[in-house]
Backbone:
């Protein structure tokens, strides 16, 4: 995980309508979405989006329908052209690419997984998986070997010669993921990839994605409207509302410190014990040299910094008087009072609630 | 004294109107009127429609309706020579194709052409019942000595639908890509489809000699090409937007997109268009027998002209058989494509 962002969005605006460029001046002058629609019949899709997406991380963009999240993800590979702003990929402005270079970029650097799978119905699962390489001009034998490898990796061995409509939704989306992986691109764009699946299958797919990610370290941009899903997958969480970013950051910190009532409402229904981890509620050591400060105290036991609170509650059997030492691997990094843990479970009530 | 005299007098146009007035009778009606000037015309309307002819009665400067039809005719005849110079060489290959196909279908011995056609039917439909039906139909046509005329009809249909598909599919693709082209072509297609079929033949007779086979070839193609264009356009426009987006997202260029995504997904619709094109060319081939197209249509025409009931009916049944053969075979092919597309 390097420090330079893989993808940077700088001051991205999108206005839908025939004269989008002319409307920019109104928006720059501070006109909001409803006024623009009322007075000029143009829809403000995205306003002033600034997001850094780090290599090897899962960036989750979350928002309700109409918040512009699907519009946002389509800007990354320019399926939608922005009205203003920059899209930097490895420091190169995607907006400056020629048509041929743009196609090459889409072939080699980005792959995409769709909500409705978008597989080619007249082709077999294997041919679908190999599609990205076919577009790149790789010969049939090589691309189908690669496709078969990734199909096996997503658990579809033996289904190569089926047609997509013969598979269930979850399996079709596995084909979609295999297709994206086969393209061997660094960046995977996932547009509500699991939203069309039923809850159990969705959990399976999330686990599959996390497992693959542990190994492959792709830069994943994941769009969802489901906060549980967002919190489960995100390294970096971006919350969109009406086309603007309301808050972004590490998911745990958003959960504990929501920036505005909109997000407070959002996070109030979450099972916090399952999402929050020890790291977010512990009392960390000021610096590692103070290790001996911990040695004198009496602890109930050691917990891992990545454990979630649910497992800790189960372990303490609900006793709030307990005290644990927090370990990162073999190194003690802090301490945890069960009392703090319980406090963290109560959401900060939104003023509107 | 005509009804609208007062109008022209009031407008002060009397002088202009009478400039070219002649007292000579211009039509039989005028002549009769002149002879019975005293008699009151019992059919005269109280308030006649201000049509060209009625206005002409009052003002000779206004032309009569018959001048309009005469104008169209003379205009067409004037343009004819130029059109002929352009169209004749372009359409010449059509004559060759039709004559060649006619020769091939009629001169090939029946024990080669019939099994060949049955095999083609099997190859396209992959359906045993359809193939057996095709074979039985040919045997029946042979048994009643109509095989050679049926072959003539078939040869024309093969050439005309082949060319319709050859031109219709690319036109349909172009139409699906450009809204403006679609807007301008749709009225033309509507016109081609609704113009009474006999009307096609009239200008063509002026342009080409009736002995040339391209005359009926053009008439059939113009009539039959419409559905394949329409359904190609429709089929491509109906391709799932999500799949197209995926094609773009994986960096396909427009050629790859067309060949790998749009055409395969539009194929069921295109095949339905081809089926319609076949049926429409069969309908037109009968009418085209008026302008020397050979085949079963000639026998139908003989039946009408000479009131030979039996000849007409037998030929009609032959046409029905051909229609059913072609329809079932192409529908079976369509079904096969559909199944491959939607697999269970």
Residues:
């Amino acid at each position: 995980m390097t420090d330079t962002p893989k993808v940077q969005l700088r001051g991205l605006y999108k206005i839908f309508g025939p004269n989008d460029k002319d409307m920019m001046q109104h928006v720059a002058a501070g006109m909001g979405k409803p006024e623009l629609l009322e007075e000029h019949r143009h829809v403000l899709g995205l306003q002033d989006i600034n997001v850094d997406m780090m290599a090897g991380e899962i960036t989750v963009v979350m928002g309700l329908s109409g918040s512009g999240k699907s519009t946002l993800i389509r800007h990354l590979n320019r399926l939608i052209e922005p009205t203003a702003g920059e899209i930097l990929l490895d420091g190169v402005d995607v907006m400056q690419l020629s048509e041929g270079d743009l196609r090459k970029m889409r072939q080699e650097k980005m792959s995409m997984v769709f909500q409705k799978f978008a597989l080619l119905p007249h082709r077999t699962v294997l041919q679908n998986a190999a599609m990205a390489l076919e577009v790149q001009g790789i010969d049939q034998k090589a691309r189908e070997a690669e496709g078969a490898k990734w199909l096996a990796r997503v658990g579809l061995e033996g289904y190569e010669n089926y047609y997509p409509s013969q598979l269930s939704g979850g399996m079709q989306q596995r084909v979609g993921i295999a297709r994206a992986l086969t393209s061997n691109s660094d960046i995977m764009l996932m547009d509500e990839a699991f939203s069309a699946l039923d809850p159990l299958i969705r959990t399976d797919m999330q686990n599959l994605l996390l497992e693959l990610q542990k190994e492959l370290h792709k830069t994943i941009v994941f769009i969802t409207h489901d906060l549980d899903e967002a919190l489960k997958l995100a390294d970096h969480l971006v919350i969109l509302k009406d086309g603007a970013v309301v808050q972004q950051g590490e998911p745990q910190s958003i959960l504990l410190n929501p920036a505005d009532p909109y997000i407070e409402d959002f996070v109030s229904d979450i099972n916090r014990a399952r999402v929050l981890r020890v790291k977010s509620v512990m009392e960390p050591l000021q610096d590692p040299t103070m290790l001996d400060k911990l040695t004198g105290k009496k602890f109930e036991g050691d917990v891992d910094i990545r454990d979630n609170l649910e497992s800790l509650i189960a372990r303490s059997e609900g006793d709030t008087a307990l005290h644990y030492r927090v370990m990162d691997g073999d190194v003690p990094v802090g301490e945890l009072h069960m009392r703090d843990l319980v406090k963290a479970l109560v959401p900060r009530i939104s003023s509107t609630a | 004294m005509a009804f609208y005299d007062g109008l022209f007098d009031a407008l002060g146009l009397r002088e202009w109107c009478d400039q070219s007035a002649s007292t000579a009778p211009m039509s039989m009606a005028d002549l009769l009127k002149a002879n019975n000037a005293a008699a009151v015309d019992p059919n005269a309307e109280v308030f006649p429609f201000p049509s060209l002819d009625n206005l002409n009665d009052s003002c000779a400067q206004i032309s009569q309706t018959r001048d309009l039809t005469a104008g169209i005719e003379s205009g067409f005849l004037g343009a004819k020579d130029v059109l002929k110079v352009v169209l004749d060489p372009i359409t010449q290959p059509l004559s060759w194709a039709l004559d060649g196909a006619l020769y091939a279908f009629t001169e090939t011995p029946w024990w080669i052409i019939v099994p060949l056609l049955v095999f083609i039917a099997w190859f396209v439909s992959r359906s045993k019942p359809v193939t057996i039906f095709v074979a039985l139909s040919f045997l029946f046509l042979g048994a009643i000595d109509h095989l050679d005329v049926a072959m003539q009809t078939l040869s024309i249909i093969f050439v005309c639908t082949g060319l319709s598909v050859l031109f219709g599919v690319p036109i349909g693709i172009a139409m699906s890509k450009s809204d403006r082209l679609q807007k301008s072509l749709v009225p033309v297609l509507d016109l081609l489809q609704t113009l009474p079929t006999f009307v096609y033949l009239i200008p063509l007779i002026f342009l080409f000699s009736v002995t040339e086979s391209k005359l009926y070839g053009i008439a059939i193609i113009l009539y039959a090409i419409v559905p394949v264009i329409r359904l190609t356009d429709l089929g491509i426009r109906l391709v799932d937007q999500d799949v197209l987006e995926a094609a773009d997202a994986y960096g396909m260029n427009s050629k790859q997109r067309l060949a790998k995504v749009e055409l395969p997904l539009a194929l069921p619709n295109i095949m339905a268009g081809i089926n319609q094109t076949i049926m429409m060319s069969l309908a037109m081939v009968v009418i085209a027998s008026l302008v020397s197209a050979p085949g079963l249509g000639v026998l139908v025409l003989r039946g009408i002209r000479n009131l030979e009931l039996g000849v007409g009916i037998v030929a009609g049944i032959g046409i029905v058989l051909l229609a059913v053969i072609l329809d079932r075979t192409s529908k079976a092919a369509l079904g096969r494509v559909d199944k491959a597309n939607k697999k269970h």
The first strand of chain A starts at residue 5 and ends at 16. The mean pLDDT of chain A is 87. The longest helix of chain A spans residues 199-216.
